[in-house]
Structure formats: structure tokens, C-alpha cells
Amino acid sequence: MEIYYHGSKVLFERFDLAHALEGDGKVKFGFGIYVTSHYSSAQHYAAKGAVAQYYVYKVSVPAKREDNYIAFKQPVAPAIVQRAAERLDTEIPEKATQDGKDFRKFLAKRLTGRVDLEGEKAASAFLVAIGVDFIEWPYNWRNPALGTNRAILDQDKVTILSVDTLQQQRAMSFYSVAPFIKQFYPQYYSIERYPAAQCVCLRRVTDEWGVLVNFAQTPLLVNNVPCKSAEQLFQLMKFVDPEPVLAVYNAGNPKMTAKHWEKSCRRADWGNMIVDAMKYCLTEKFEQSEAFASTLLQTAGRHIVEDQTTFRKRWADTWGVKLEGEEYVGPNLLGRLLMELRDKGRLNYRLPDDALVFTQFLPQST
Fold first, then answer.
1. Are 99 and 156 in contact (CB under 8 A)?
2. Half-sphere exposure of 343 (CA within 13 A, CB side)
3. Contact status, residue 306 vs residue 215, Cβ threshold 8 Å
4. Which of 28, 117, 269, 362 is the most buried (most CB within 10 A)?
5. What does the alpha-carbon distance between residue 7 and residue 56 come to, in Å, rounded to a whole number?
6. pLDDT tens column, 27-52
7. How many angstroms from the chain centroid is the CA of residue 116?
8. Nearest Cα to 309, choosing from 337, 339, 332, 333?
9. pLDDT tens digits, residue range 123-173?
10. Residue 85's CB: how many other CB atoms inside 10 A?
């Protein structure tokens, strides 16, 4: 046996050709299980089809012998040609034996009269029947010595030895939340999966569950300062200077206004208090808004997710998820905090002494 690699966005326990074409949807090199001698190549192709998480499988495959494979742009071994001719009870044209690709196409046409997917499947089954284990081509066509790729024709001849779970490497900006979560809140640094049919989805404030969205107008009173929403309160907590505090407080969209001020004025310790700040905002909302509290309790027994499927960004950000097939996938930090609040009745948080210093710059309720 030899060691090769296979990349996929799907986690599974064994290979099954019934799921072929569920990846990139092409059969360019024959109908089989595609593996490569290069780990990086498997990783590359797995990442192309993944949203946030993907997998590289280390597998054992049949070792190459002179008469158990066919290769692109190489003559087919005489022993294989002979076995094929005997089984088909016909002479195989020499032209079809000078390139593995032409040989495969000849078999497809001969067996089914077609060179489409059905023909490819028939050719693969025929090759297995005459002792051919795989089709091979170079990892790099310009430099074949660098390694090879293979299409293993029999799923039972691929054995999974180990699986690496990998995360997409995203280009992080100043505004990225993920690095803070990884460093200061590792218990929340993960990718979660939820059956879509069992989820309460947060999208817009006008939807059925809209009151659970942070932007929902649920008036809060903090240090006798009125806030319009949990989102406004959360964005205000990023600052300790009067100018950005007043700008965010008076803005129609506090999130976008806060983003404008963050690079120059965001408090230096924001990263190690960000989740505690959100917990504080949700706790205040739970205690001060009857509509929010009662609606949150109505979600009992279901998962809560912030659905970012329609967002332009490729991955769900730290707070939400995206729909992948029949599952919502993503960090879902907001949903997890809401479920924690619902199920435990409280959220434990710890804030710096000056966490609410912004309130001194704002008008108090009369």
C-alpha cells in the first residue's frame, strides 16, 4: 500500500462512490476517488469548497505495479490491453492503447456507446474487473517528478488512516473579532453545526423573532442614561472619550458610526472585555425588556442562530452562521450567548471598573 491524501469539506467514516460529483461536480480523470501525493494539494481543493471548516484525509491506496494502473499520456501496459481484449472478445485499436485517457474513452464507448458519466462509470467498473486499481496523472504536468494524483476505481481499496480538521485562514482586519475570541475567550472559539429544521433564526427586527436581534428597539436604562437598543449600548461600550460616544449615541446606525471611530478611539482593552460586554448588554435587555425575555423563553428546546447566509462575506463572522445544505454552520457566538441566557437564566460576566464611563457624557433620563 501507499500513502496519499484526499481533501473534502465533508466529514465521513468511509469512502462511498455514491457521493461522487458532490464536490466540484466533474469527472475529468475518470470515475473514482481522487487522491494526491501532496498534502497541500488535498488541502487546497478541500478549502475551495468549504465555508469555514474542511478536512484532509490521510489514506492508504494500492501500491503501483506495472499492470494495475493506466496513466495519462502514457501507453497502457500490454498485460492490461490483453486482459481487456480477452474480456471484450475483440481486438483493441493500437491508437486507443497509446494514452490512458484514450483507452478509458474507448472502453466507455465500447461498453455503453457513450462517453458521458454513464460511460465513465462503466469503464471504471470494467477496469476494476480486469485488475486495474487506479488511473494516474502528474501532480504538476510541467514537472511530473513532483508527484502524482490518482483516481482510485474501487472504493473498498481506500482506507482512511487519519483525518485533519482545518479552519479557513481568513484575512483579519482591525475590526475582526475572531482574534480576540481566540486569545481571551477560547471556550467560545469554535465552529458549531445546527440542524436547520431545529433552529430559531435571527435575521431582521421585523421578523417573527426580531425582538431577539440586537438592533431591536428595546429601550434600556444604564446609569440613568436611556439607550435605544442592546446594539447601541454595546457599541457605546467601545469608547471612553466624549466625541465618539456622542457620535455613536446620536447615530441612526450605531454600529457603522462606531466603526468610523474605532481605529482612533477604541478603548485599548476592548479585546479582553468584548464577550463580557455583550453578556452585560443581553443581561440588561433580559431584565429590562419583558418582550425580549418572554420571546427568548419561547425558544426553549430549539437552537438560536444569527443567520448570515445572505451576507456578502464568504464566511459567517464570529457572531453568526451560514446555511450549508441542511445545517447552519459558524461560530454563532450571539446565538450561543442567547441560549446560555435562556437555559441558565443568567450570564456570568466581569467588566473593568470603567466599563460604563461613557454614560457620564450622555444626557440622563428625567
1. no
2. 10
3. no
4. 362
5. 4
6. 678 889 999 998 878 887 787 655 56
7. 31
8. 332
9. 999 999 999 999 999 877 777 777 899 999 999 999 999 999 887 655 556
10. 14
- Residue corresponding to grid cell 494539494: 41
CATH class belonging to 178-361? mainly alpha
Q: Of 308, 307, 292, 272, nearest to 341 (Cα)?
A: 292
Q: Grid coordinates 429601550 are at which residue?
A: 219
